[in-house]
Design goal:
By secondary structure, this protein is of the alpha/beta class. It is built from 12 helices and 8 strands. Helix 4 links the parallel strand 4 and strand 5.
């Protein structure tokens, strides 16, 4: 039985724990200092809550970091501090999987921190919703030890090793994020213009008939934006910075972030369940298109 630590059991972390536990892994986490919602998700996912970080990662073959990308460096530093001197003597170095769609430059820093503590770093990113872990949602992996991480995660979830270099998995996810998030921003802008012209219903019907895949994506993900828009705005901002850092224009990524800033400013209640129509109505009424 593989022992796998998950830091931390938010929506995606809980989905990882649920899938891995169902396939025989012993999943652990630390919930000290975290809210009751995190504790509840851990219980429901079959993740053992440990009193200290040192207890959660002790004996783990794999430590998975699943936090907002801008908290990834802090979590890596905490793990490195907790295992420094312990992992160095292991016959096989434990794996540290940063699965946060971290910008490649930040990932290089994280790799240096965890590898100095005796861990082997793996770059990771999740492409798809937490609710579809174990189905079509794919975990992207890269780095010299990516194959070893893939063996631990499969067959609990779909895994794709995309290359031998750290940063390749995160780069792929950031590139794809410009498409998936940009489609949502474009849909909101188009629906706002169509509504003002009195042809919103026809626009929706024609999009569903002519471009069903695109329209299904917009309808499926938009209801989650009241909860996740800040994280998705940060992701496309990171994508824009990465693209521009390579000397390329990031016009679409920057425009998408601008739309999401307006969505965030609309202040939709993240604690309630939203339908597609309700989100569209609220955002267009607030001018967040």
């Amino acid at each position: 039985m593989s022992r796998i630590a998950i830091l931390h059991p938010g929506e995606m972390g809980a989905a990882f724990g649920r899938a891995l536990s169902a396939h025989g892994a012993a999943c652990t986490t630390v919930t000290a200092g975290r809210g009751e919602a995190t504790r509840r998700r851990a219980r429901e996912a079959g993740i053992e809550a440990c009193p200290r970080l040192e207890d959660a990662i002790d004996g783990c073959a794999l430590i998975v970091s699943l936090v907002p990308a801008r908290a990834a460096q802090a979590v890596a530093a905490e793990v490195a501090g907790a295992c420094r001197g312990k992992a160095a003597g292991a016959a096989v170095r434990p794996l540290y999987l940063d699965a946060n769609s971290t910008a490649p430059a930040d990932l290089a820093h994280i790799a240096g921190v965890v590898e100095a503590a005796g861990l082997a770093c793996v770059d990771g990113a999740v492409f798809g919703p937490a609710s579809r872990i174990g189905q079509e949602t794919v975990v992207l992996l890269s780095g010299p030890e990516a194959a070893r991480a893939a063996a631990l995660l499969s067959p609990a979830m779909a895994v794709r090793v995309v290359g031998p270099a750290l940063g390749q998995a995160s780069a792929l996810k950031l590139a794809l994020a410009v498409v998936t998030k940009g489609v949502v921003a474009l849909g909101l802008e188009a629906l706002g213009a169509a509504r003002k012209a009195g042809v919103e219903g026809d626009a929706a019907d024609l999009l569903a008939d002519l471009y069903p895949g695109i329209w299904d994506l917009v309808r499926r993900v938009l209801p989650s934006y009241p909860r996740h828009v800040a994280r998705r705005r940060a992701e496309v901002e990171d994508a824009a910075a990465w693209i521009e850092g390579d000397g390329l224009p990031a016009s679409m990524a920057r425009a998408t972030a601008e739309v999401f800033t307006r969505v965030e400013a609309a202040g939709l209640d993240p604690g309630r369940d939203w339908s597609f129509d309700a989100v569209v109505d609220a955002l267009l009424s607030a001018g967040a298109r």
